[in-house]
Amino acid sequence: MSSDLLLRRFATAVGITALTLLASCQVRPLYSEASGIGQRLNNVGFADPKNRVEQVVRNNLVFLTSGGAGETAHPEYEVKLSAKSTASSILDLTNDQNDDTVSVRNVPVAGRVQIDVTYSLTRVKDGQVLKSATRQVVSLIDVPGQSFAKLRAIRDAENRAAREAAEFVRGDVAIALSKEPQSQTAWQK
């Protein structure tokens, strides 16, 4: 056998193997109508919040999963979540520069607000946990010297971070629900 014939057979074998691997790949859009994810997201309920940040995350999740139609009355899945917020300065202030000196000069201090969202997605009919995780989102802020402006800047940063955290949780929930077997609908006359 010549090396040219051997090379052709090897190339053919590699090509057939590559086509087999590509044929087994099943990539599809996550939110396509055929996957039924939109309907499953409509069937997700959310536990009651315990603080303001949880309320903002929950409100955004309800809007994102239902498309603005509101929460379903009889959910098939439930998301329990807890969220906490921490605000801190990102600059290392020395003893010469404390908060009083900064506020007198009216120079804003760079800060950050971090929201930690821990959630679990549970199937209601059997109580099986399908997904649980923690997401962290950071929102950067400039903290002014005025007290009310400082509180408002922190609250605005919490709202921004809560919206982003809700997007992450929605994506995680959609991926977990896409792995669930589709329920067979019975046809009626």
TrEMBL record:
Keyword list, A-Z: Lipoprotein
Keyword Lipoprotein: yes
Entry protein name: LPS-assembly lipoprotein
Source organism of this protein record: Neorhizobium alkalisoli
